[in-house]
Specification:
Shape: globular
Distance between the termini: 6 Å
Radius of gyration: 14 Å
Protein name: YkgJ family cysteine cluster protein
Structural class: mainly alpha
Number of helices: 3
Organism: Ignatzschineria ureiclastica
Strand order of the largest sheet: 1-2
Order of helices and strands: HEEHH
Number of strands: 2
Largest sheet: 2 strands, antiparallel
């Protein structure tokens, strides 16, 4: 299983302060490849590593965290952004406590 992104698009609209994505920032925290009309990434297939939860886990964080821990941390960040932006609850990222790392291989 992969990280259960719900496609709300907020992570693409809040890249300000992410050093690795500095060249993608329009200057207002929005990625230059985010399409507000389609609510998606124009370069999804070739997006940066920092925009790929599963690849970041494998290449950077797998020695520090279990996959479920990493997913839960990302889900917390996603959900906090959604709550702050008053995004409909249907977009919340759900990682159940019954999941184990085996569910995410």
């Amino acid at each position: 299983m992969m990280f259960p992104c719900t496609g709300c698009g907020l992570c693409c609209q809040r890249i300000g302060g992410v050093e690795a994505l500095r060249d993608y920032d329009l200057g207002n925290g929005v990625c230059k490849y985010f399409s507000p009309t389609e609510n998606n990434c124009k370069i999804y297939a070739t997006r940066p590593l920092e925009c790929r939860v599963d690849e970041m886990y494998k290449k950077v964080y797998s020695a520090q965290y279990s996959r479920i821990e990493f997913y839960k941390m990302n889900a917390q960040i996603c959900n906090a952004m959604q709550e702050e932006a008053k995004v409909d609850e249907e977009y919340r990222v759900l990682i159940t406590t019954t999941n184990s790392d085996n569910d995410f291989k």
